[in-house]
Amino acid sequence: MSKKSLIALIVAAVLPVTCYFLLKYFSNEAVVMPRRYFPDTVITKTEFGKTTTDTIWHQVRNFTLTNQLGKKVQLSDLDGKIIIADFFFTSCPSICPTLTHNMKKLQDAFNKTDTIVRFISFTIDPKRDSATRLKAYSDKYGVNPDTWWLLTGDKEELYDIAKNEFKANIADTKIDTNFIHTQYFFMLDKNRVLRGWYDGLDSIHLNKLADDIVLLMMEKDKSRKSGLFNR
Do 169 and 163 contact (CB within 8 A), yes or no? Predict the structure, then answer.
């Protein structure tokens, strides 16, 4: 997929979806948003004879890692942002260059028009991937560090994030949990809840990811009353 093709894709996605939301708003019908994954707790309560349930969804925990500029950063620095993440290593000779190339196209397309979408690439080879090495890799692909972090740190921490926070081994059942080399992109909403994973090598999945990002950009805060969105 060329850069122009992906940008055209985003524009093509934004316009009809915007019109669709306006139509649904004025017709007072519900819009189906990207689903949430991995409930932590389901609370059931009965009041005045009526039983209701409320789901507490898994929220990716905060962490501190080092980005390609050698700066300590936390996930909480991106609170309120939509996050697209993947797992890679700089010496990867197979899928990683293509994954990075495709994520760069997404960065270029979305960051032209908004400030809410952010990107994170976690190394799975921190022993070799120092901040200096990540910087060289990011420069090679023209990564904008303001909106895309390449992160390194303690291996145990990185793998815990991959397995227990992003659930990479559930999304991609074929991967070796001792070396989490997956071709999937993971999408977190503004509350750090996982809303989907997408094959970063598949144009159909990338199209779906672009559509879902647009939907999350328009999603209202859950705490605010609205008849527009399904929860």
Answer: yes
- Tokens at residue 216, please? 């999350």
Q: Is residue 8 part of a domain?
A: no
Q: Which residue matches tokens 């409320």?
A: 54
Predicted TM-score of the model (pTM)? 0.81
Q: Long-range contacts for 55-60 (Cβ within 8 Å, ≥24 apart)?
A: 57/193, 58/167, 58/193, 58/194, 59/191, 59/192, 59/193, 60/161, 60/165, 60/166, 60/188, 60/192, 60/193, 60/194
Upper half-sphere CA count for residue 182 (Cβ side, 13 Å): 28
Write out the residue range of the structural domain in which residue 120 sits. 64-218
Name the residue type at position 103. M
Site of tokens 């692909």: 141
Instruction: Give the pair of three-digit tokens for residue 126.
Output: 């921190």
Residue 124's domain is classified under what CATH number?
3.40.30.10
Model pLDDT, residue 38:
84
- CA nearest neighbour of 10 among 230, 211, 186: 211
Looking at residue 148, its amino acid is W
Residue 56 has pLDDT above 90, yes or no: no
Cα dihedral sign, 221-73-91-140: positive
Who's near 15: CB < 8 A, 6+ residues apart? none
- Is residue 48 domain-resident? no
Evaluate if residue 170 carries a pLDDT over 80: yes
- Domain assignment present for residue 41? The answer is no
Cβ neighbours, 10 Å, residue 165: 21
